[in-house]
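Reopening: Sulfite exporter TauE/SafE family protein still failing for me.
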Amino acid sequence: MIDPLFVSAFIMGLIGSGHCIAMCGGIASSLQLATDKTRPLQYSIAYNIGRAASYMLAGALVAGISSHFATQSHWFALTLAFLSGLFMILVGLYIMRLGVTLQWLESFGKTLIWQHLVKLNRFIMPINSLPKAMAYGALWGWLPCGLVYSALTWAMTSNTALDGALVMLFFALGTFPAMLSIGMGAQVLHKVLNHPWARIALGSVLIWYGIYLLIIATDKLLH
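Support: Ran it again with your exact input. Result attached.
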């Protein structure tokens, strides 16, 4: 039976696809312009596999570290539970575009990681092979993104590094439909997911789920 956390991560990726399109749609589209025009789907799939691989690596790293401390401290585990609920609410507000919410976290990621990794781009361009497309996706998988960082807070609550990697894999799979469609030049999904009412509806789902996670964490605290 699939762990409910994996299912939740997949749904989060699916619901947050509108944000993914806004953040990475231009990258996916530029990938099509820079590659073999006869194999656009193959290049898009390779790009997204690389992106998922980076997510899984990040998930394994944070889960491996956090699980070590969580097994030694009940309070640390509870703190992670509260953080996962809080970040779920923040990402819901983020998708609804009600304030800056997670932009501070993206700025932190840009300063700490991205400004260094993006320099590797020159070793990948031009993208004239599937391995290069995959490497391109793996590099851009580290692009500062509040949605990804929120998913990582879920990965942090995992018991093992493998579980953390799987959480991020399911999250990535949830984003695949939107990212592949953008890679193929479809704009309809972009308009639907970024419509104000769609953002409000999808963001509300994440906010209510975040409240549910906070209730569970509070119950554990009291009992």
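The chain has one domain: 4-222. If you still see a failure, please send the error message rather than a screenshot.
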